[in-house]
Amino acid sequence: MDIKAYVESLASRARQVAVVGSQASSQQKNEALHAIAALISKSTDLILEANALDCARAVERGLESPLIERMTLNVDRVQSMCEGLVQVAELSDPVGQMVDQNQRPNGLLISRMRTPIGVIGMIYESRPNVTVDAAALCMKAGNAAILRGGSECIETNQALATQIARGLEAAALPIQLVQLIETTDRAAVGQLLQQTAYVDLIIPRGGKSLIERIAAESRIPVLKHLDGNCHAFIDASADLSMASAIVMNGKTQRNSVCNALESLLVHKEVAPRFLPNIVRDLAAEGVEIRGCEVTRKIVGSETLIVPATEEDWRTEYLGPIISVCVVDDLGAAIQHINRFGSHHTETIVTEDSMHADRFVREIDSSSVMVNASTRFADGFEYGLGAEIGISTDRLHARGPVGLEGLTTLKWVVRGAGQIRQ
Amino acid sequence: MDIKAYVESLASRARQVAVVGSQASSQQKNEALHAIAALISKSTDLILEANALDCARAVERGLESPLIERMTLNVDRVQSMCEGLVQVAELSDPVGQMVDQNQRPNGLLISRMRTPIGVIGMIYESRPNVTVDAAALCMKAGNAAILRGGSECIETNQALATQIARGLEAAALPIQLVQLIETTDRAAVGQLLQQTAYVDLIIPRGGKSLIERIAAESRIPVLKHLDGNCHAFIDASADLSMASAIVMNGKTQRNSVCNALESLLVHKEVAPRFLPNIVRDLAAEGVEIRGCEVTRKIVGSETLIVPATEEDWRTEYLGPIISVCVVDDLGAAIQHINRFGSHHTETIVTEDSMHADRFVREIDSSSVMVNASTRFADGFEYGLGAEIGISTDRLHARGPVGLEGLTTLKWVVRGAGQIRQ
User: Fold this and answer.
1) What is the value of ipTM here, to two decimals?
2) What angle do CA A155, A135, A59 make, to 5 degrees?
3) What is this structure's pTM?
4) Alpha-carbon distance B352 to B355, whole Å?
């Protein structure tokens, strides 16, 4: 198989049909989404069979069990894919929405209209629901999508892509609006990243090393989701029971996700009152604590605290570990976070509104929170309806990316014959 | 000189001071802009001396006269730089502005705050006013700027940069907020494009080949301004005297700019009435006409019309040439433009509001106009106050880019102790 020619033909077909997708009515797009949901639901058995094949191969190849857990489908998981499709159908269509408007002294009306980006390439690992989510979001935002899932899920993804194509057809949309790269050859990714003439944006989802590799190699703009080294700062004026709830929720509600809490900063004035309790509670939940010297002194030998190194301040553990540091004041907390953090999500617990405002203004992260758990950094929780990922980039879209992040704006100028002097 | 170490040290200093720029008050930034304006005005003689040196060298090196014209300063041009600085000071500060807000069922208040991008690298040619404009816009939007002007203007740019630094100092801002690359060694550009750890965005301004080279080489996101192959479509219902004014203005008011008209499409129903007159008027202004077969038949031998080739449909002439094509209907015009255009700026002249709406919806360009001259595609004309360029990219910022395009958004979440279930 000539991988270069194959990927190029997929990409050029995507570009050709993108104009049809960009002009499809909301009704037609929603019809397709409902049709896909119904078709996937009806072919649950087929999809589970394909998935069983993938999982059996994965076991044979000795893949790690968390990965196999992530890729395994069951009736509930298939059902929730279908629910996701219906939810996207219910979101309002961003395409054609008008954004701000002003009239110039010469009478020209200047406004902006939301339009699709064009062709979007998604590169992702394991979870097969990304195939469905990405297809739905890209298509609803009027884009054409090229999907490249993990090779371990190729059978499942193909089974899903078949139903997606049938659903597009049922709504009289070109099936090439969503194309799956049907080879597991790794060279296909490299080829996709070179299609500057046909592909407008690459969205990778997966581990940090995958994303870094793609960003380094891509000739096409990439919307990156790198690490979430998220912080909570407990201010001197904090309500300590609120602080405790927010820290426990951030670290223990689910610790393998990007918006989980990784580092706890405590104002020195409340450290003696706050630290012994929170350390005990975290330890009781099986969380390993890596603390600064002051933390260790305050807590004493009550609970084992591993000495934290600078490396800890920089680390996204993605597991049951937390770093703890006592800081002199709000300024020191902000400096620590901007220096060692990954600019993903941080929260302050405080009753001082001036401190809250300063934290919000000066923290350079995609989400900055006051008196809330970092676990809320999520497209659903923000009311976007769904998310295609969380961007840690600064350009185009930052933080949770929903339909709006999959669109762009064009200027619309309406006149009555004006010419420039 | 170790170019790599030099550029890296500029970039790392820019990153260090960017946080100060991002937190500077509007008052402080405006103070700096006014101080720079006053200092440049006061040192007009010094700046003109430096410029005379650059121009003399350019003549010696045999540079083309339009380039020398563009780089030559005089008292008026220096004065208008100063006025530009004062104008930027008068623009409202985008940093800290809040964008949309919604309250979630759980009580969380979700909004977004406008923030600086960080460190911006500008790479440009000839016109020394870009040094001042870029410094002003980047700084007002809270960013640190690294400027790399054309080697032909090095003396002028250094003279300007000296005053910029003094103005920053006068407002107690770090002078490294605006740094000029003070070597003319071309390797410096290559080095700048590799500073992914320190530079967030590259904005090139100049010829298409420069921009394409930078985009191909850069490891940092690039905001590109490629060509403007702008179209006017004269619909069947057009007011023909309005159409004539818009075409003449688009092509002849200034033809070397990106928003000048390059291609005229005429509905077949009005072609016999419209074409002979407009062709005569254009020819009278010294414009060369390259027409399709139908155009040539309609106009006959009255005026010389060169047969247009497909290459003409794709060409941005940037000079006194226009391509003319008769089309069957609105749909054919839209197809022609989306296929051959450069997605910069297009206008329709029509009295039919349904046609206007369809043109606006279906034309895939950064500016789409109704009954107005393409020459209005410009940040000043759109009310942005100033522009750092016109983006032909689809991501982040599209069309004229002002202060807003030099910022990004972060999510702000305010709660009362909410945790995720």
Assistant:
1) 0.94
2) 25
3) 0.93
4) 5
